[in-house]
Amino acid sequence: MRPQMRLSSLTAYLILFLILIVLFTFFDHSIALGASYNVGDTVCVQSEDNWGWYEGSILEISGDKARVHYPDYGDQYDDQWTPLMYFNPPYSFDVGDEVIVQDSRDFSIYWPAEIVDTRDDEYKVHYDGYDSSWDEWVDRCRIFPEPKIGDAVYARYSTGYVFGYLISRDGERWTVRYKGWDSSQDLILEWEDEVGSGDIMPCPPGEQEYEEAFLASKVPVSYPATTSIYHYEPVEAPDPNHNPPETKPIGIGNIAHGGDTLDLVVQVPRFEDWIDIYLAIQVAGSIYILGADEQFYPLDRGLKRWRTHLMYQPLYTLFHDIPVSSLPQGDIYFYLLVSPKDDLTRYYLWYTNVSTIRQGYFTGSALMSQDDLAALASSIINDMVQKGSVTWYEQVENFILENRDSFEVDPYNILAWIFFNQNNIYPFCWAVFKELQQDASNPLSLNSAAVCLFELDDIETGGRLLDLAYTEAPGLPITYENGAYYYDQKGMAQKALEMKQKAAQGDGANPYSAWDGYHYALGHGLTDYTDTFDSMIPSNFSLLKSDGSMGAGPAKTAVCCSCNGGFYYDVQECVASCEVSLACFTSICTPNLQCCWQKTPFSLSPKICFPPQGLQACLAVDEKGNVSLEIGGGFAGIGVYVGLQRDFKGNYTAYLAPGTSIGIGTKITLVSTDPKARKGAMEYGVAQGASYSGLGLSIGLSSSDLWHKSPICDLNYIGQ
């Protein structure tokens, strides 16, 4: 029984440490490398880019770096900061001294030589094995003392140079004891090999001290003498430092710096002997521990080892790119414990924590949780129903539920567009939040919901919905446009202009955004922005500025493609979309009907009927110039019409149009002269109507694959 009781005590002891938040004071373990330097000192500096040595004077020192002025290069490098480890005081030599000289073309080669003369800051050298015709004057920073046994050097190995020590010499051959670190195994390696004199590079004192300090930092970690607990600020990637107080074995991705995704990446430094590794997460007040099967288990089910019988843990990713929005809001703690194998009486425990509560881009408030969003949607929907006709809402919703699979476009989206264009706010808000209940992460739906709340004078909650829209899809012009409205309503004109500027610069931005931003800046006296917006208004934009002038921005050209009705700024984009040759173009467009109407899922259709009820004839003209004549009527709550439409391109289409008394209907294509029309194709729409002076008047919106006016057609002289 004693071992079982002892294990239970240790488990409770570990749980206590996992839950406690412990504060630590860390010591500065930085190492001063190389000689001591002062501003004004003359130094030789090795380039980090090409290994060449250059003479200069120190302008400024900050920590372990300095700025240097190089007399031979003017001031073009004066603002560069170089680590002091690459500095070396100039050597002083006498005639007859044996030296090595850096080649003036290949900085990795050093030639054995002898000093034969001196002048100022140069030395004349004679190269071993060459006649005096090769003698030359060399800058002092390219000359180093001849290496001796015991010196630290960089010696060629394979295709590079590795740090090591000279241990013997036989003529022009040197034996080098290399010391390197294998990052894949977190292991210091030592080996010996022979090289020629030309395969040795000097290792100045600063670099030698750095190399030795680095290797010392990679000595395997000793077992802990007792229990040691270390907390550290969250980091994106793990740092397996061999000094336990500085080790950061858990990286959590960009959430560590306020990003939107969470990773869990682990790396443990090499230990002197076998170890066990435990990994745990604390979320929403509960602790879960990772098992060997890489499944998390509640801690009350007992301790589970994640890894055992190993000496180090290479970089390992447990999970990647988890959206922060999908995590519970609050603090998440990550724990990693390393103990000697099968011995939990002593261990290192590292932990870090991060908050998943994010501040909104617009409001600066904590992001609204999914539960709060769902509650808001339910509240708005109920409120809108109570302010309207409960029966009407029920009829519409029942019809949508029964026919949802028949709609290519979300029917709530169709309704929202209709009611917004009618300025009918209550059913607009109802439809928007019903749509949001279907997909709470849709940034366009979140924008529409924000507009609803703005219309209901709830500016702050509308701003919080924009925060969510920005989180889901940063950079949408419509989000910036609505953000500008949010800031304007709060009296923050400059912030509103910043949003308008972002909207005007976004992909797919309408030239009108820049035009609107220009006049907003002008109206608020913020003239610093007027030039910016003016330069973004195309000079061929049809709307003139308030002073009657055109925009100062570059003119935009456009291409209309006959194969798909698409409207493009780029010819090649049109070709790629059509997957055919240039024959797909009707023209490099001038403003004509075919080019200025673009496909859309929505078509607005006013209609007039006589008589207002029963068997009637109806004439409809939509905003594109398509004209339809329908004959039919409504009986027992069901309406059936037969229609003929002439579109703006001169095509004729016969169709059947059944509908319901609440205004939701279907249009079925029977036959058409349009080669792109498909027999049996269906369109869906919603209409609202009333009787006036013996006529039936209605306006509707349909989800058809028809054409509408492109805002780009507000450009004059398109294609010129």
Automatic annotation (TrEMBL):
Domain Tudor-knot: 111-143
One Pfam family linked to the record: Tudor-knot
InterPro entries, alphabetized: Chromo-like_dom_sf, TPR-like_helical_dom_sf, Tudor-knot
Name by which UniProt lists this protein: Tudor-knot domain-containing protein
The organism of origin for this protein: Dissulfuribacter thermophilus
